[in-house]
Structure formats: C-alpha cells, structure tokens
C-alpha cells in the first residue's frame, strides 16, 4: 500500500492540474470501489471549482467551492493518471507493469482549467481497494480522519511529543510507530528506515525511549529527527515505487535505491564502522529489517 511519501508525491503531481479547475462532469463507471460511491456522487461535484488539494496521512482531500470535501484513498493498487489534449500516455519505464485496461479506469474527472484547456484525471484501480467518500462539514471530523495522530512532516513531531506519545507503552517500538492514532501516515518501509537512522531496535519496548532521563531524551530526539528526515528524503525522491506505486506522470520514485535496511536482508549494515548485517524479523505479520549490532 502506498505510504505517506507516495501519497504526497501524487498530491503534488495532481495539484497544478486540479487546483483552480472546474469539474465539468464526473464519470463513474461503476457504483463502488472498496465502498459504494456517495449518493449523487458526480452530480454534487459537477460544475464546481477545485479550491485546494490536500493530504492527511495517507488520504487525499479535494476541496471544492460550495461543496463537500472528497476524501480519496489509493488502496493497494490505485493510481491517478493525468490526460491532457494530445497526450494520453503514461511515460516512464516501470519496475512493475501498470494497468492500462480501460475496465480498471473506474472514475474520470473531466476538467476545464482556468486557461480554458481541457484535462482528465483518471482513477485506475485493478484491485478496487481504494475509495472515495464525501466529508460533510469539517473534514477532520470524518470517521476516516478523526482519530489520526500527528503528521510526521513538520516540526510538531519532536522528541518531547514523541516521548509523551510513547510513555508507558510496552508494545514493541515499531508497532507503536505504526499506530496511526499516534503518528499519522507512517508505514512499514519508513519506520524500518527511521529506526535504523536513530540506531534503535524495532524490538525494544516503546516506553523505553520516553522519560526525562538524558538517555531517553537523546533517543526520542534522535528518533523524531530520523522520522522527519526519512519522510522528507522519500518525498524529495518521489516515493519508493515498490510494487504498484508510480507517480502521476508515470515515472518511478527513486527512494528505494536509498534503502539502508528495508528489504536488504543479509546485506552488510551501512552504518560506518558497523560489523553487523541486516536481519529480517516478523512482527505482527510484517517484516522488520534492522541491524542488531548498531540498533539497540
């Protein structure tokens, strides 16, 4: 499933085309994705101008003038494709084949941009694990968004806040970081990478990095900084392009070429001077990759 950097990459790719454009009509080629589409789905969006395209955790939020907020989730295999006059291709060499089957083009937004040019935004989802729902009123109060924790992309996530979030928790550190109620948008890949950067084991109890002692403070500060930096680096690289993810213009993200530990079982640990190797352990059904020598 695409993680936060991939979703942010999609948002940035769609933003120049969507924001300020008028939705001429919405073509829903089936009545449902993972969930049924909202009643009067196309009718409630048609004729309205897109005022902003946002992101909350792994969700895209499309704001329209005098209308509901559309909450979108890519699911496992969903992607958006931009089509403009004379260009209906998806350039790029894919690590994994992408769906061009029109049967999987489930939602099409027909747009008129401020310049008068026409464009189409196509949502393709072979597995139909993605969804589109309306948020009435304040988007953050929608059930999909209301319980989400702090975003890991800004300075709000610092060592003090991380310590407070993890205080007293006996669950493994990695499991706590994947709890969307604490930190929104973190997934398996980037938690593994952040823990390596902070030299912390995914197996240690989460509460051990919380507290007022010098060591605990140093650990929580290091981990907060590592989370912010790994997310920022991944966004700058355009995501990771594992399995089904690609950017909206069809090109791959490149952060997977910078993985220190994720999916590198048996490789030498890249920490300078470390003699360990990357190991894989399974936690709650998910693979964790780490070096037991330098991650304590």
Model description:
It is a single chain. The chain is α+β, with helices and mostly antiparallel strands. It folds into two domains: 4-141, N-terminal domain of MutM-like DNA repair proteins (Alpha-Beta Barrel); 159-291, Helicase, Ruva Protein, domain 3, CATH 1.10.8.50. 22% of the residues lie in helices and 21% in strands. It has helices at residues 4-18, 41-45, 159-166, 173-177, 188-197, 214-236, and strands spanning 22-28, 50-56, 59-64, 69-73, 79-84, 105-112, 118-124, 131-135, 278-283, 286-291. Strands 1-6-7-5 form a four-stranded antiparallel β-sheet. Strand 9 and strand 10 (286-291) form a beta hairpin. Helix 1 crosses helix 6 and helix 5 crosses helix 6 (214-236). The protein starts with a helix and ends in a 5-residue tail after the last strand. 39% of the residues are buried.
- How many E-type strands? 10
Helix and strand content put the structural class at alpha+beta
Strand order of the largest sheet: 1-6-7-5
CATH architecture of the largest domain: Alpha-Beta Barrel
Strand content: 15-25%
Biggest sheet descriptor: 4 strands, antiparallel
Please tell me the overall pLDDT: 87
């Amino acid at each position: 499933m695409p993680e936060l950097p991939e979703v942010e990459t999609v948002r940035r790719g769609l933003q120049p085309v969507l924001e300020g454009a008028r939705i001429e009509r919405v073509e829903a080629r089936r009545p449902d994705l993972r969930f049924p589409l909202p009643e009067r789905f196309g009718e409630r969006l048609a004729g309205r101008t897109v005022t902003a395209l946002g992101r909350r955790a792994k969700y895209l939020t499309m704001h329209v003038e005098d209308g509901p907020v559309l909450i979108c989730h890519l699911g496992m295999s969903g992607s958006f494709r931009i089509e403009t006059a004379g260009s209906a291709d998806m350039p790029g060499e894919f690590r994994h084949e992408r769906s061009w089957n029109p049967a999987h083009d489930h939602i099409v937004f027909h747009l008129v941009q401020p310049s008068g040019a026409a464009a189409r935004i196509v949502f393709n989802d072979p597995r139909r694990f993605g969804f589109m729902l309306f948020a009435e009123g304040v988007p953050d109060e929608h059930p999909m968004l209301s319980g989400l924790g702090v975003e890991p992309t800004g300075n709000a996530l610092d060592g003090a806040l991380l310590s407070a979030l993890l205080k007293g928790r006996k669950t493994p550190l990695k499991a706590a970081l994947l709890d969307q109620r604490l930190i929104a948008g973190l997934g398996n890949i980037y938690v593994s990478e952040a823990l390596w950067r902070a030299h912390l084991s995914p197996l240690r109890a989460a509460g051990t990095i919380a507290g007022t002692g010098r060591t605990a403070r140093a650990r929580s500060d290091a981990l907060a900084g590592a989370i912010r930096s790994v997310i920022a680096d991944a966004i700058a690289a355009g995501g990771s392009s594992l399995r089904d993810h690609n950017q909206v213009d069809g090109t791959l993200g490149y952060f997977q070429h910078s993985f220190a530990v994720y999916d590198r079982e048996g490789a030498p640990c890249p920490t300078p001077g470390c003699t360990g190797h990357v190991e894989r352990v399974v936690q709650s059904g998910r693979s964790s990759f780490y070096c037991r020598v330098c991650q304590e």
